[in-house]
Each structure stands twice: as C-alpha cells, then as structure tokens.
Amino acid sequence: MGSSSSARCGSRKLELTSRGHRRKKAVESRVTQEEIKEPEKPIHREKTCPLLLCVFTTNDGRHHRRDEFSRGNVPSSELQIYIWMDATLKELTSLVKEVYPEARKKGTHFNFAIVFMDIKRPGYRVKEIGSTMSGRKGTDDSMTLQSQKFQIGDYLDIAITPPIRAPPPSGRMRPY
C-alpha cells in the first residue's frame, strides 16, 4: 500500500489513501475549555472619574437577603463611597473601617458580595466575591471590583463579623 495524507476537519480526520479515496476516522477532540482572561486595563485615577458605589453593611456576619433589595427598597445601612473599578477589597475594608470604628479591631472579618439585578428572573442576586480580615493579609486583599465583573449600578454588600465571632483564620490569611 502507498502512503496517505490527512487533513483535519472539526473533530473528524479525513484520510486520503494512495488511490485517492477518502476514509473518515473519528478523532478525539483535543480542544480544552480554558477560560481566557482579559488583562485588567489600568485606570489612571487622576484622569478617570470615580463611580458612586452604594455599600450595605451588616455586623452579624450575614449578608442582606435578596428580598431586602426588592421593589425599589434597599437596606438602611447604606454607605456611599466614591471609588474606581480597580479598587481592591483591602481598600474598601479601610474605607469601611473609617466609618465604623468597631470594625477596626484586629481579627474583624469582612465578607464581600456583589448584589445585582438578575436578567433571567425578576429581582436581585447576591454573589459572594471574597473576604478580608483586619490585621491579617489574605489572598483576596488585592482582588478588584473589575476582576469580579462588577458593573456600575450594582451594589456591594459587606457582612462584618466581630473578632469574637469571626471564623477561624484559614491558611489563606497571614499576620502583617
């Protein structure tokens, strides 16, 4: 038998024999589902206008319920912060600690969630995005709003847990 040449078409391999006949051969797909992340665009804070971020806080360690954001209502614990999309969770933690002195205690846990309008169903959805802790470094400290797909018009909900009731530090946190 003579040699053969081949060409790929989708997930099938077409093989040409020496006589010019085509044979189809099943080939495993080698395509991997790999998420392609776009690099964050740097924000020039002196040239870019900040956005007004509505932040809602609790001090019992739990996020607000979705229904607390329904029918034009929002929780009463609203903070309004001017910030940029490249703001980190650690920056936001510092701003909240300026307003709530009791949150400055070492070991206070801050759990962040984005609250956004659900386009598939009426109402809002709550998506937890990360956490920080006063007095400790963590892997989520440098996480930005932009990296979590925050959009202008979304809310930020922060569940604050005092150090006495805070979850035990995991391997992700380390002292400053």
From TrEMBL:
Keywords: Repressor, Transcription, Transcription regulation. InterPro entries: Hist_deAcase_cplx_SAP18, SAP18, SAP18_sf. Found in a mRNA splicing-dependent exon junction complex (EJC). Component of the heterotrimeric ASAP (apoptosis- and splicing-associated protein) and PSAP complexes consisting of RNPS1, SAP18 and either ACIN1 or PNN, respectively; the ASAP and PSAP complexes probably are formed mutually exclusive. For the ASAP complex, the association of SAP18 seems to require a preformed RNPS1:ACIN1 complex. Forms a complex with SIN3A and HDAC1. Interacts with SUFU. Belongs to the SAP18 family. The gene is LOC114496903. Residues 1-39 are annotated as: Disordered. This is Histone deacetylase complex subunit SAP18. One of its GO terms (cellular component) is nucleus. Pfam families: SAP18 (PF06487). The keyword Nucleotide-binding does not apply. It comes from Phyllostomus discolor (pale spear-nosed bat). Residues 26-39 have a biased composition (Basic and acidic residues). GO terms for molecular function: transcription corepressor activity. The keyword Lipid metabolism does not apply.
